[in-house]
Specification:
The structure is a homodimer. By secondary structure, chain A is of the alpha+beta class. Helix content of chain A is 26%, strand content 26%. The N and C termini of chain A lie far apart (58 Å). The first copy, chain A, has helices at 58-70, 132-146, 163-174, 180-190, 215-223, and strands at 6-8, 14-24, 29-35, 45-46, 49-51, 76-83, 94-102, 117-121, 193-195, 199-201, 207-208, 211-213. The first copy, chain A, folds into two domains: 14-146, Nucleoside Triphosphate Pyrophosphohydrolase (Alpha-Beta Complex); 152-224, Arc Repressor Mutant, subunit A (Orthogonal Bundle), CATH 1.10.10. Chains A and B meet through strand 1 and strand 6 of A and strand 1 and strand 6 of B. Chain A binds a DNA duplex through residues 162-164, 179-182, 184-186, 189, 201-209, 229.
Chain lengths: 230, 230
DNA sequence: TCAAAAGTGTTCGCTATACACCCATGG
DNA sequence: CCATGGGTGTATAGCGAACACTTTTGA
């Protein structure tokens, strides 16, 4: 029998961190899911997550989960909600502090158990384990909200990208369509893009300008408070 | 010696809910603080909060805390962040799921321990216990963010209010000044206010129109998605 | 030569903003 | 009568939105 060596006067819940990992493949917004190998919900897909260690903050725990699944250490990561329904885990009381991360799919290395990890387009996500359907809904909603205040979208693109790629990303996140000229004008007027010496010829099309995100001018602007309008 | 009757294989943190209670007195945005009667931080001010019971969700716990301090059961309440630094409580590892509530100060009844509860204007809040300074900063920031998407301000006003009161509220939350005519026009154009048969003569001034928030038309608008611009 | 994507500028309507005078009340 | 706050409308500038044709490339 296992040893129960931690004792408390009152019952304590377990605390886990889960990490919704968003990626963008140029057309679709995707999330990385793990197939559960054990009960409960064996065979169902779920977000990577695990118990919080006693000497790490929730953020550190979420980063650890992210690293274990993707090999990434410096991705953008953001806490969005804590899930606490008493019966959300059939085994015991579990509180989950949920984060989402924004990563570049191309930089993701298979994790410890790569075989069970898979990218799913947002609209093709199957029914998930536990209350992870709800977690995904809230993550998506918060991502949409946040993109109005911070240019987090750049975390999902390569460091150099075309205006069309950027537009597709915003369209995928917000589920809208933009006019190419208006989108480009608006983005450039924001002053947070730097146009590079032009290059790149995509598959078999006309050559397109490359841009990079300009963090310095963004940070300057942020001082005075501003809004990204879409 | 106290009995430690709950046993776990791994260490578990304690989980609490804290509730930042915002009120508006017509001029200033205020928060309700409790003076701590015991160590640690005895004599310092802190947000009401307490341990989460094993059969309640964090939301239920936060509502319970709110009820105990204010007698209110139906106030607006919103989870905004979970605080988890390993050393944030000197006694033991404590995870705090933090909420803020918006209440009408006039409806607040003294709680179980009214003597130790007091309203503080946001810019007069003393140095708080634990990491509650940080909790307050994040609560305020999230409140400002949220007011761009939802007309939560009405939760802080009486059910009937003048345009000036509403303007003062928005100015207090966002720390800005608006032109009276522009503010009024913008608000009315939103279509979520209903003007009442005019009345109210304030202390010794000209009579002012009264308005009420129109939840029906707000809900209609929300279906199609919209933004409150300020 | 055809299909697919990229580059480019103008017009129009709306909204944000700035702004000033008169009125009612109570002291 | 004076101080305080309330009600009200207009003019301007900037932004958002709609919109089409030409160019390049690879198949």
């Amino acid at each position: 029998m296992e040893e129960l060596k931690y004792h408390y006067k009152y019952p304590h819940p377990s605390v886990t961190t889960d990490c919704v990992i968003f990626g963008f493949d140029g057309t679709l917004l995707k999330v990385l899911l793990i197939e559960r190998g054990v009960e409960p919900f064996k065979g169902r897909w779920a977000f990577p997550g695990g118990f919080l260690k006693m000497d790490e903050s929730a953020l550190q725990g979420a980063k650890r989960e992210l690293y274990e699944e993707t090999g990434l250490k410096d991705a953008y990561i953001h806490q969005f909600h804590t899930f606490s329904a008493p019966d959300r885990d059939p085994r015991e009381r579990v509180i989950t502090i949920a984060y989402y991360a924004l990563v570049r799919i191309s930089e993701v290395k298979g994790g410890d158990d790569a075989a069970q990890a898979q990218w799913f387009p947002l609209d093709k996500v199957p029914s998930l384990a536990f209350d992870h359907d709800k977690i995904l809904r809230e993550a998506t909603q918060e991502l949409r909200r946040q993109i109005h205040f911070e240019p987090i979208g750049f975390e999902l693109l390569p460091s150099q990208f075309t205006m069309t790629q950027l537009q597709h990303l915003y369209e995928a996140i917000l589920s809208v369509k933009f006019d190419r000229r208006n989108f480009s004008n608006k983005m450039l007027k924001l002053g947070i893009l730097t146009q590079l010496e032009k290059t790149i010829t995509l598959p078999n099309k006309k050559e397109a300008f490359l841009y990079k995100f300009n963090a310095e001018s963004y940070n300057e602007m942020k001082e005075k408070g501003f809004r990204l309008e879409f």
